[in-house]
Amino acid sequence: MKKTVRPPKRRFDLLQEDRASSILARDINRDIILELLRLRQPIARVELAELSGMQRSTVSLIVEQLIEEKWVVEGAMVRTPRGRPPTMLSLNRDLAILVADVRPSQATLAVIDLNGHFLLREVVRLASDPKVGVARIAEGMLRLRSQHKQGTFEGAGVSLPGRVDPETHQLILAPNLNPKWINYDIKAALERELRLQVEMDNAANACVLSELWFGGMQNVRNIVVVTISEGVGTGVLTNGQLITGRRGLAGEFGHIQIDPTGALCSCGKRGCWETFASSRAALRYHAEVLPKSPAPDIMDLMNRADEGEPAALQAIARQAKYIGLGLRMITAALSPDAIVFAGDITACWPRVESAIREEVEEGMLAGSAPLLLPIGDGETARLRGAAALVLQRHAGYHRSTA
User: Fold this and answer.
1) Phi-psi domain of 62 (left: phi exceeds 0; alpha: psi -120 through 50; beta: other)
2) 39, 46, 220, 305: which one has the fewest Cβ atoms less than 10 Å from its Cβ?
3) Global pTM value
4) What whole-number distance in Å separates Cα of residue 189 and Cα of residue 208?
5) CA 46 to CA 54: how far, in whole Å?
6) Where do the structural domains in the chain lie, given as residue ranges?
7) pLDDT tens readout for residues 64-112
8) Where are the beta strands (DSSP E) in 166-222?
9) Is it true that 16-91 and 216-382 share their CATH fold?
10) CATH number of the domain at 216-382, out of 3.30.420.40, 3.50.50.60, 3.40.50.2300, 3.40.50.410?
11) What is the distance of C-alpha 135 from the center of its chain?
């Protein structure tokens, strides 16, 4: 039976060191109103004031600004026994975001609305040359935009299998992409073609934001998202802040060496956690046992496991063990409330959950293990995360370089 998160009652922080800043306070008030709107829509202004603790005049000013910017729309009036009937407010369903989830050989593109609903989707092939690959992404996004003529587009978000420098907005670490993609100005190239503001980040960081904006963890303040596909990525939320670190490199647990005699990693070192816990590792385990009939891809391997093939079952069990062992680094370093999984591993979660949990529990220094939960469809999580990269400009979750 799937466990549900029962978070504590929400408490809004006002970033202690910056309380004196009226601009920051205004931004935070706006964030709070937008978050309450998202969670409680349709909702009246008076209820927003009650839930937020703000004065009605403050709420009205914020709401009018959000309506003017087309983030919020007014709906029907609700009859009440006394007084003026309140007008209900909701997020604007016609405001949309173009998104892309970039993988080594392809990119999935989509149009998503503010509530996380997918309106359109397509897949484009990429190339080793980033100029060609980004051009294909732009062409695909323009096609999707032309098919959704009734929508107004707020921006574009891109989820990437690497780390993005928050200052230069360029990839500085992407072991599973062709090296030519490093330092190529993806953001500028897309903005030039789309004429929209583009936000980019690591896929795991994007998945953290996806859970906060669209998922069920709005009130959990310490989360680690682990993406397991061709590589292993991690996104870290600590005390309600997305941790990016210097040059955006924080959270690269996948490239911590756990065995210097292990397999060669795509980052150039040997024995990184990724070489033991990724989908590529599972395929390698399978090929070692069944060299004459190796699984061509991870979905085929999982299908073989479902059919009871011993070599496939052994490979996935070995991968699960190493995932759990690696998570001990995360629990010891960060002590999260929950570890959430995205990517290929979610497709076989019932098969691997107990093995991963056992390793984590055995490695706890003190107390109980964090919740271990799959997001579900890993691709959907990364695409929604790309949308959340755009939405975070108005959301109450702040980055930290700590």
Assistant:
1) alpha
2) 39
3) 0.81
4) 26
5) 10
6) 16-91, 95-209, 216-382
7) 988 888 888 888 655 555 556 788 998 888 889 999 999 989 999 999 9
8) 171-173, 198-202
9) no
10) 3.30.420.40
11) 24
